[in-house]
Every structure is written in structure tokens, then in C-alpha cells.
Predict the 3D structure of the following.
Amino acid sequence: MDDVSKEETPGEEGMPVQLRPYSIRARFTLVTALLSVIVFTAIGIGLDFAIRTRIQDGIYADSQRLATTWIDWEPYSAPQPVTTTRVDLLQFTDSHSRVLAASKAAGDVPMSRLLPPEEDRIQHGTACTPARCVVFTVVRVPPLETTVLWSGEPHFVYAGMVQPPILSGHRLEWLTGLGITLMSAFAAWVAWWVVGRTLRPVAEIRARTAEITVGDLSLRLPQPPGRDEIAQLARTTNRTLARLEEAVNQQRQFASVVSHELRSPVSGLYTRLEEAVLYPDEVDLRETVAAALSTTKRMHAIINDILVLARLRTVVPAPHVPIDLGALVAEEAAGQAGGAPVRAYATDDLMVLGNRIQLIGVMNNLLVNACRHAETRVEVTAVRAGGHAVVNVVDDGAGIAPKDRERVFEPFVRLDDGRRRDPGGSGLGLAICRGIVSAHHGTLGIEDSSQGARFVLRLPLLETDRAPMHT
């Protein structure tokens, strides 16, 4: 069974529920879990440290206050009643750590043998025995009292309490670890749920994409609401599918028209050659060969035009170079030898970016068509208008009806007057011209004229193309 058949069945949210290493949802959840563990661990360590510090600082503050208060008491009497319920361990010792007085809870065993020096009279610490750990503060009796009462022998007051369970064991660490685990698991679940909700349209898009085939490009992807990346992707893909459907339809129509246009000359050629073979004595071979050559020449012209049109649609265009369109129009107008006379007017310095050979072909085709249909003259103008170079080719012939002004640019479309004036034409000339102009980011169309046909070519001027580079 292949990999496709192994995919899981979508769950309630339309997404696979099994964790897969190559799933975006799984990867995002895994990354979120790892980052959550790292972040919450750092927070937990800091929180653990802060809690321990706060509890210890509170004990140290209470024990220090109690110890310094007890220094003023009579050291040979019993300790005064303790005013706090937390700090209940009080001891008064000499320099040999002998307990001279103590609270009932403290006992006779010294809490610690820590003896602060004169320059640091108050110190804090934790002393542990097998039975318990005590958090305490030890205060050295001031030198004046020591000298008066004990002939200079240092004495010390200890105040403390049994270390709270949250500090004595690993309870705080376990609680912190449990919190880290729960928070990380919650963050991972949120990531899994959010990504699943976000990618739900992707499953629908994938399912619909699997249904789209070359035979039916009319299907479109479901577009989720909103303007997020997935919605924009769906809309862009639908626009691409629409262009693809249009291109495929054009290709099919073009192939149908090509086959129709080639079928007639091929059938005629086949018939004449078959007659020559079957009836050699009744058919003039010289005439048959001449007719076959004429038909072959027309087919050759049609095929060449088809190849040119196909290259315009598929081949990457050659780099464009600056061209003086006015000079090019004047040269082509002056080179027209047959047909009606051509009068040209061109503005200087009409610089455009383009392929010179292709633009010459466009102008030559427009001028030849105009001369073929003109009665007495053809007028050509090349001027500047609104950032474009505009070329008008006008003849004084019968003109083209408004309903046919777009049809004549379709492949193999030839009007009756065109067939009469040029029986051997392929009907691809204007289609090729429009393709070339479109590749130059321009337009080619037929506009209203007082008499005859008026072809209008517009190409962006060179300075217009370069202007955005300076903004």
C-alpha cells in the first residue's frame, strides 16, 4: 500500500488526529511543547528560588527581631514568653557553645556552633541534625555588656524555628515540576487545537484540489472567510485556476481551428495526388504538381505562422533594447512599395523598450493590411500621448464593423473582404501582432474612424518604464 493510502481518516475538525512527524500540526505542537517546557522551567526555577528566599527572609527577620529583643533581658533568668508563633526556639550561649538559658522548645543542645565575629554581629544560617533542620539568627552580645557582665567573654543569642516542610524537603520542587508539566501540556493542547482550527480549510482545499483534473477545470477551491494567508492562498489559487481554464480552452479552440484550417488544404492535396495516381493518363501531372506546390506553400505559411504564435505564448521573450519607434515607423512606411501610397508623420524621440525585429513585423503587417484595403491612401502617425507612444494606421477603405473589431484578432478569423483581397492568407497575422504587442506591455486595437479602418498601437515610453526606479 502506498503512502497516500496510509493517511489517517480526518477527525471531527477535518484534520488527521494521529500525530505524524511530517504533519505541520504535529511539528508546531511539538515545538510549542518544547518551548513551553524551556520557558516554564526557567520561570519555575526563578519562582522556586523566589519562594525559598521570601520564606527564609521572613524567618530571618522574625528571628533577628526576637534575638535582638532578648539581649536586653536578664540572661540568668528564664526566657520571656515568645510573642510569635513561628520563632519558638531561643538560646543564650557562651563562647564555648554552652547553653546558659533557653526556651522550652529549644532544649539544652545548641542550635549551632556558628559564632559571629565583632565586625559582623548578626548572622543567619540553617543547622541540620538527623532529627530536624533549624533556620536561625545568631546575634553577638554587644562588647559593652560582655565586658561588664562576663569580663569580655563573648556571649550569643540564638533565635530560630524548625525549617518549614516546604523548605526542608523537595515538596516545592515537586509542586513546581507539576506546574511546569501542566502548563506545558496546556500550551501544547492549545497549539494543537489552534493549528487544527487554522488548518481545517487546508484539508478542504486539498480534497477539492484532488478532484480537479485537466478534463474539468471548472471546479474552484473553497474560500474561507477573512483575509489571512490561507484565504489569500485560496483566492489566488482560484484566480490561477481561472486563468489556467481559460488558457486550456484557448488551446483547445486553437487546436480545433488549426486542424480545421489544415484539413481543407490537406484534403485537397490528397485528392489531387490520388487522382494523379489512379488516372495517370487523364490527369495533367505538371498541373497537378503545380497545384500541389501551391497548396504546400500555403500550408507551409500557415504552419510558420502557427509556430510564431505558439512561441509568443510559451517561449521566454528576448531581452528588450531601446528603440526609436518614430524612426522605425517612418522607415517601414517609406519601404512600402505596393498598394496605396503611405503618408507618415512621426514625432522625434519616441523611445520604447522592445524587440526591433518583432516590432518591424507588427508595423509591416499593419501597413500591408492597410495598403491592401485602402482605396487611395494610407496615413500613419506616431505621437506621444500620456506616457505612451501611440501609432495610428488609417486607411480609406470600407472599414471594419464594430462587431468584428475584436474577432479579426482571433486566430484564423478572416472577413469576407479579406478573403477576397488575399485568398492565400492564413488569418494569423493580426493575432501574432497582438501577441507581440502584449509581450511589449502594450495594446493593439481598432478604434472609430471617419472613413476606413483605424488600427491603434500603444507602447509605454522608455522614460515611463524607468520612472519608478527613481521614486
User: Anything to note?
Assistant: Confidence is low (pLDDT under 50) at residues 1-19, 464-471. Residues 229-278 form the longest helix (50 residues). The chain has eleven helices and twelve strands. The two ends are 59 Å apart (CA to CA).
